[in-house]
Design brief:
about 90 residues, single chain, two-stranded parallel sheet, mainly alpha, about 65% helix
């Protein structure tokens, strides 16, 4: 599946915040989830919104409360994704 440049950039930003020993597994998990979500929506390309949904879905519940702060650091508005963070 194709990824647009902005989605790939966001993925790399997220991975840069992931501890190095976990980064490769996190990348595989995020890519798989994002591509699955895009496929489920009938899309042929992964976009930023899909990466965000995959990021939230793959973040363990115990640390999910930190995602809004991380989103803000990436220039994202967490309020736009509140429905996914619930």
């Amino acid at each position: 599946m194709n990824w647009n440049d902005a989605a790939e950039d966001l993925l790399q930003q997220i991975l840069a915040q992931t501890p190095r020993p976990l980064r490769e597994a996190a990348e595989a998990q995020l890519r798989e989830r994002a591509e699955s979500l895009a496929d489920d929506d009938g899309k042929r390309r992964v976009g930023v919104e899909t990466v965000i949904a995959a990021w939230i879905a793959t973040t363990p519940e115990a640390v999910r409360s930190d995602l809004p702060r991380q989103m803000e650091r990436f220039g994202l508005d967490p309020a736009e994704y509140a429905h996914l963070l619930e």
